[in-house]
Task: structure prediction
Amino acid sequence: MLVTTDRVGKSGATIPAPMALVGILGLPNVGKTALFNALTGLSALTASHPYSTTEPNVGVAKVPDDRLERAADLEGSAKTSHATLDLLDLPAMAGPGGSGLGAQFLGRLREMEALAVVLRGFHDDAVPDTDSGTDPVSQAETLLLELTLADAEVFSRRADKAAKESMSDASLKPVAAAIARAAAHLDEGLPLRAKSWTEQELAAFRDLAPLTLKPAVWVVNVDEEASGDAVTGRLDEVVPDGDLVVVLSARIEEEAARLDPADRSELLEGLGLGEGALATMVRATYSALGLLSFFTLGPKESRAWTVGAGATAPEAAGKIHSDLERGFIRAEVAPIDVVLEAGGWDAAKSAGLIRLEGKEYVVKEGDVIVVRFSV
Ligand SMILES: Nc1nc2c(ncn2[C@@H]2O[C@H](COP(=O)(O)OP(=O)(O)O)[C@@H](O)[C@H]2O)c(=O)[nH]1
Ligand SMILES: [Mg+2]
Result:
């Protein structure tokens, strides 16, 4: 039997997207929960007290994508489903004057795939300052040092153990040596991301889930009217290469998130904020995680699916349904911009703009895919 997916994927069980768990952290009273609310559209309690809740807030952020929305319009889709990130708003993290990072907190942090680090750049007499004041750069330095010290402790403990083990089993020597190198690097107060490591070294580190290897987005939470240009330059010097700095006002974004889409656009555009900094931040996090979206379009549903960079067409098909991976024959593929330009999938097909790709094809960000399969 040869069937196509009718561009929506067969309904039924879907395989979960790769983990995209993002932890929000920062000193107390910097706007972590405000950012969480803005990202999720939820209303967790924001409060101006230093050590708030002990339980994290858990929510889902939609990865905004207007290409998907335009395509869904063209196809007359009944439903539009965006890609998502899972967010954890972690309980306040103590500063240098406090108790340091609790073991429980660090444990949660190690489970995260990426970090969103919130730095306070706003001034408000009603909200007590953090121990590092309201200078985002010194907060970033404090937090980076805390994360580095936490990794240093874990790595030096493991280095001792691995050295002993490798005395009785020589095959463990390379692992022990890699961990010792990382421990020495961390002991100098340098995050692991400050150096490039080989695949073998990274494999040796993996089960320690080092915090300073996690991709991070550094969010400067500024006053409504403030511009962050001055801060961004100084922060770029402090944060590890490859990390992104985003300046936004969590409070405005939180208000905007409560509005319906038309009012939200009006508010943000009125303030000269375009689509809002949240969209930028979420997309940056998504790509920092090495994730990309491909699309299925159709009258029932237009949907963004998440795969890791490097996924092949059958692996992508498997996200939609395991049968599509098992019975994969070929995929019809076109970039979504081409589909939009042509006026929809059928129009793109008539115009000869759709390619046929086989099992080896590596999916690209923004591909629209129809799987041909047989089971
Ligand atoms: N003025 C101002 N206040 C903010 C902003 N973001 C958060 N706040 C306030 O700061 C306090 C602490 O915010 P919250 O999100 O609970 O901080 P958290 O402890 O980091 O989770 C609350 O009273 C917020 O309303 C902002 O951008 N501007
Ligand atoms: Mg909070």
